[in-house]
Design a protein that fits this description.
With 71 residues, this protein is mostly helical. 46% of the residues lie in helices and 11% in strands. It is built from three helices and two strands, in the order αβαβα. It has a two-stranded parallel ribbon. β1, α2 and β2 form a beta-alpha-beta unit.
């Protein structure tokens, strides 16, 4: 995801619905894959506005992007 991405905002809202329904029975992780544009503060603002109490992180070194071949 990226904080500026409308599709990602929509996806985060779905994650929030899942989290509200299933709580800690489902492990959610949001990964920001645009470290060149998004800062830690951008991610915190994104989480506060759209997300919930699950893990949000930035793939700073593109490790997950490469491992899972995300484009």
């Amino acid at each position: 995801m990226a904080s500026w991405c409308p599709t990602c905002v929509a996806g985060e809202k779905v994650f929030k619905q899942i989290h509200n329904k299933y709580g800690n029975n489902v492990q959610l992780i949001t990964v920001d894959m645009d470290p060149l544009q998004d800062t830690e503060q951008d991610l915190k603002d994104f989480q506060r506005q759209y997300g919930g109490e699950w893990t949000h992180l930035i793939d700073k070194e593109y490790e997950l992007t490469k491992k899972y071949k995300v484009k």
